Structure formats: structure tokens, C-alpha cells
Amino acid sequence: MTIRPYSNNYSGMVESVLGLDYRGCRALLEERLREPAPGRVQILTGPRQVGKTTLLLDLARHRSGGTVYAAADGPEARLPGFWERTWAEAEDQAHRRRKAYLFLDEVQHVADWAIRLKGNWDRLRRERIPLHVVVSGSSAVRLGAGSKESLAGRFERLTLNHWPASALVGVLGLGRKNAPRDLVRWGSYPGAVPLRSDPARWRAYVRDAIVEPAIGRDVLALGVVRKPALLRQVFWICVASPAQIVSVQKLRGRLDDPGSLETVAHYLTLLEDAYLVAALERYSARVIRRRSAPPKIVVLNNALLAAGDPLGAPDPSKDPARFGAWVENACLAHAWNQGQHVSYWREEPFEVDAILDGTWGRWAIEVKSGPFEVSDLRDLLEFCRREPRFRPLVVTGEKGAAAAGRAGVPSVTWPEFLLEGPPRD
Fold first, then answer.
1. What is the per-residue burial (b if ≥16 Cβ within 10 Å, else e) of 33-57?
2. Where would a tag sit more exposed on the chain, N or C end, judged by fewer CB atoms within 10 A?
3. 8 A C-beta contact, residue 168 and residue 183
4. For residue 400, how far is the Cα from the chain centroid?
């Protein structure tokens, strides 16, 4: 979990909590809802189909005071006066019960939601109405822009991100041995787990319930995508390039309708804001060089790889190279989803898979899922010689610890990394 401060013009610092799993997010919201009301608005963001609605309904069921839940993407929300009726009911509960809770799901579907929420929240504070407010939405861009512009100092944002392997174990009951391998091959969308025995149905679910709404609604509804078909092409090319360094020029060259370099780069940013793909920067102490370098593509949930690859999930014994790329993608996505700053390093002829900086500490990481020799770690050791603040780590298969040990480099198996992250001091 990472907590990053946001400056504001209202009342000190507001926290943005990134990289929470379902249990951590629920526990933090429970804690905040026990505070005196009205507290700051809690804004819950995150990818589609990771349990935000389930979490709000779960919290609503276990409240001792009055509770109002409303879905802003439901048919009732299209009727005139939806916003006013919802707030009137919640405030009535607060007056009668002396403490109440309002849960607004998919709030970005309400026109001018941030301005409206600001006005209602200011009145709660002014009239001391004991009402806690929690809102949710899928798109980081739409929620982030509205909340920062209109709700400065009035909100705290939490991100319920893609599920790690530990959540598949703790919440869904998968075994610790199988969960990391399943995450690599099938991803970690909880709703897709029961469908894995029927690959065609599983793939249809991922495409229809996750990819299409994220691209066709969350991103396109921003009004800044002039070429929707080009956006989709950029996404699927990224899905076909997990853990690869791809220049924007080469990415543009693979498109049917190339568009400008600025358009392609902008679409990469939108895909990251929609929790689909991250374009990692190259690590450099010089910001100019970092921004001019080609990005490394990381797909933020391996389910998207399996849904987009016509060959399906790779078999590690029959297709070790492709499986290794999926393992590396899963490890880098796990770090990104847990709120770490993830980059890569390349200074010809050297290259390191990932540079992590965050609550996990500073790590330089090589992912070696297959056999390797001590000489294969020279790039990692060279980076750590130049940047001694970072510790080296090899994320390896079960048989790789010996080679890492001979090089004097700590190691962790990739299943352990996907479950626990890097070693703790």
C-alpha cells in the first residue's frame, strides 16, 4: 500500500491511497466510516470488475445507522431528480438516526457530479448533518479530473486495483501453490475465475464485461478520443507486446491508421488511466532523457493477454519463451498495481527489467523464469554499481536460486514475488 499526499486549498493534506486489495480497501473504509460524520468524501476508483460495487454493497449491509445505496449507471438514474431524491433520502436518514451513510456507485455517469457533490458536502459541513459519503467509479481520468478541480480538500481517494495472487488465495480460496500460476495464465479478475473451465465463455466475459466497457465507455466518454478505432488498435498491439520496450514510432508503424506520434502517446496515457496498460519510463537521473526514451509496455492484468492472444495461455513446458514474457509482465504489473513506481533501465549494451522505488524499498530486478548463468546478471550488477541506492534482486524459477547465489545476488521465486513482493528486511 502506498499513501501519496495531495496538496489542496481547503484543510491541509489529503491522502490518496493506491494499490489496495479488496480486504485492505474494505478495512480502510470501515475505519474511516467510524470517524465522526460528516468526514471527507471517500472516492473509490479502480479497474472494472475488481469488486467496487460488491465492496459498497458489503459496507452498506453492515452499517448500524441509516444507509442509502444508489447506482448512477442504473435505469433509475436516468429519471429526472435522481440526484436530489437520493440526497434527500440520505439526509432524512441522517436526521432521524443521527448518523447515516450514502453510497453512490459509478458516480461519473452523473452530469457535473463533482460540482454537485461539492455543493452537497459543503452544506453537510455547514449544517453539521451527520452523513458519511462514499462514491465509486471506474475511470481514473474522469474521477481524478472532476475531483481535483471541484473537490480540493474535501475528498480522500482510494484505489481498489487489480487483485494480487494473495487476494486470490485469501478471498477466493485458491491454493498458494496454484494462485500465482493461475494469475500468470488467466489473470486475476475475480468474476472470471469460475469461467476458466470454459475458455470461450471466459474470453467473451473478459472482452465484453471488461475491455469493451473500459475502452468504449470509460475512455471514449472523455470526449478527447477522435479516432476510437485507432485507440483500440493501440490497445491490442500493447496486449501483444507484454514486457517489451516499444518505441512510439514503431508502435505507430504497426497501425492501420497511424495518426500522429502525439496521438499514439496520448492514447497510451489514456489506457494507463483506465487501468489497462502501463507505459513504463526508462530510469534516468535526467528527466529529459527519461521522457525521450521508448516506453516498456506492461499489461496491468494478464487476463487481457489471454483474452487477446489467439494461442491462449502459454504452457511453460511447451512454450517457455512466451510463458517467461507473461511471468515478467505479471511481476511488473503486480508492482505497479501495488502502488510502486516502476521503470526499466537501458544503457547500451546493458538492460535491467525493472527498477522499483516505493514502500517496498529500492530494487533493481531481473526476471529469469527459465535457466540462466551467473554471466546473465552482469547488467543487473552494473546498474547497482552505478546506483548503489538500489538493491539487486533476481525473480526466478525454482531452480534459479543457485545461480543467483553464486553471483551473490538475493533471489525470490516468481510465485513468492507475486504473493508477497520482494523480501522484507
1. beeebbbbbbbbbbbbbbbbbebbe
2. C
3. yes
4. 29
Q: Categorize the per-residue pLDDT at 4 as very low, low, confident or very high, splitting at 50, 70 and 90.
A: very low
Ramachandran class of 65: left when φ > 0, alpha when ψ lies in -120 to 50, beta otherwise: beta
- pLDDT band for 147, please (50, 70, 90 cuts): low
pLDDT in tens, 8-67: 332 333 345 556 788 889 999 999 999 999 989 999 999 989 999 999 999 999 887 789
- Nearest residue to 94 via CA among 123, 117, 69, 65: 65
CA distances from 156 to 7, 29, 201, 413 (A): 12, 10, 38, 36
Sequence letter at residue 296: K
Q: Centre a 10 Å sphere on the Cβ of residue 422 and count the other Cβ atoms it contains.
A: 19
Half-sphere exposure of 276 (CA within 13 A, CB side): 32
Question: How many Cα atoms occupy the beta-carbon half-sphere of 70 within 13 Å?
Answer: 24
List, in order, residues 6 or more apart from 331 with CB less than 8 Å away: 354, 365, 367, 395, 414, 417, 418
Cell numbers representing residue 150 in the block: 471541484
Distance CA 147, CA 403 (A): 50
pLDDT in tens, 86-100: 999 999 999 999 899
DSSP-derived letter for residue 379 is H
